[in-house]
Amino acid sequence: MLEIITLLKASRTMTSMRRAMGRPSGRWVSVDMRRRAAEVREAERGRSARRRRRRRELESKSSRRRPLKLQEKDPIFISIALNERNEFGMFINVYVFMNVIEPLYGFYGFNRADTPSKTPENLLRSKTLISFSMDGMNDFETQLQEFFTEVKDLIEKGDKGSAIDLLQANYIAVADQIHAGDRGIEQAAILDIIAMGYMSLDDQKLAGRLLEMLNDIVGGIHNDTPLLGSVLLHMGSMHASLGKFEDAMLYYGRGIEILERLFGKHNQCLVASLLGLAKVFTRTGKASRAIDIYHRTIKILEKSGGAENEDIIIPLFGLGNVLISEGRTEDAKTSFCRMLSIYKNLYGSKDGRVGMAMCSLAHCLCAKGDIEEAIHLYREGLQIITDSEYKALDDGLLEKMKVDLAELLHVAGRDHEGRQILEECLLIMEKHKGSEHPSLVSHFLNLATSYSRSKNFVESERLLRTSLRIMIKTVGPEDQSITVPMLHLAVTLYHLKRDEEAEELALKVVYIRENAFGKHSLPVGEALDCLVSIQTRLDRDAGKVLALLKRVLSIQERELGYESEEAMTTLKKVIFYLDKTGKKEEKLPLQKRLSVLRTKYKQKVAV
């Protein structure tokens, strides 16, 4: 049996994993640690030999593997990894160990308050428990649980150094086993936890390499092997987080096949994998398949817990969002109304979760075009959340909903009301983060945009210069992120008729973005388009302005499509400058193209 190294065994001197994974080493392994590692390896070799002998004996008795018998009263190792949006858009991650619901809030960077409920009893879970007959497996499960919990606790406490040392020490132990030829479920389970640890530390590169090792190992493990379904579920979640959606689909799919064979197609233990797969389908544009899976998940949960089951909230939210993206806003409204009804029946009309559900429904109504009703529902929902103290005032999700409401108010022409909300967000953030914190930049930009809409460009300039100063202080004068407030400032100066200053800033934005994204990227096209407007009013050389416009058109055609509205607008400008510079031979074919595009666009609008 492979022994999992604890923090005391790992100490804080492990560097072997850094070398093995191609990372620079900074500390030496102590003599005691090397001796201890050698002892662990020697003991494990003996255990591995015994396991291989037992395996050969079992195989000699039967030429065909029989599936393990399953019971519903004994402990399960990792039964569910739920990586799905909670009812209001934030990801939650729940891992179940040894029949103990262990919510790992924060393990991928999310907070405890982002979950739909504050008690483990209210979390989505599997009611099915598996008994493993493999000799010594229970001890191994216990070690895995302790390892997982220790890593999680260290990360939550901010002790990343100790967490890394613990992960490194266990990687060394499991890597020795893999190199010695042991490539079974024990090695896969430990690599799985190590990979999750590095994901939580935001080391996606190293986590990706560990997943590559896992890919090779699980490919050779039979589907009837204990714990494999849980490992596959985690692998699907991590691949999705890394943007490797095809791989995520494969692992979710294989895990679902295993669970369906063991428990049938309507068992609640399928829910976590189905939710993960639905999310992947949503992110890859396979909306119809995602909708089907959400409906299937809801039916499973209704069968096991009833129509008012709180667990249904998560798939209802996912379903509603997919339906909105498909333009089926009336169907989406049904999902969000059901969410609101469930929370009201369970917790009463003044509970914070009810307020959150109201804001979700308001978002749907906005997509449907019911602006005034959406504004009313947003205000009511936010008031309930505040009164119930369900979210802290500086909570990021609460802040986002306030900004959404402010945007709606601006769309409705109620700029002053919207600006009041934006100013409130800024004051709260200044109080909790300080007046120079980078997180204030987005609030300065929002307020500046609001003032620009109201033609108060002087106040807009002040806010933009403040945000630009904070960004330069934070990331430096050449980082691409400073170009956002810088380009906004260039536009504001243009409106203030300070064209020379505006041109200087726009040129700098083009230079920084070319270095960061490439000369033919969409961000560069955006900056060039702004520069063209400024240089046109400055009456710069028409030939040079035409060259810039052709660059903008080329970028828009490649990135947005030849028939995009943006390309059509730029095409008009190109034709104007071709006429101005006397290039009539180039102008005629572009005029014909513009005429065709106008006809198509009018037909599209009419439909």
UniProtKB/TrEMBL annotation:
The keyword Repeat applies. One of its GO terms (cellular component) is chloroplast. Signal peptide: none annotated. SMART domains: TPR (SM00028). InterPro entries: TPR-like_helical_dom_sf, TPR_rpt. Residues 40-66 are annotated as: Disordered. One of its GO terms (biological process) is chloroplast organization. Keywords: Repeat, TPR repeat. It holds the Pfam family TPR_10. It comes from the Eukaryota. This is Nephrocystin-3. It comes from Acorus gramineus (Dwarf sweet flag).
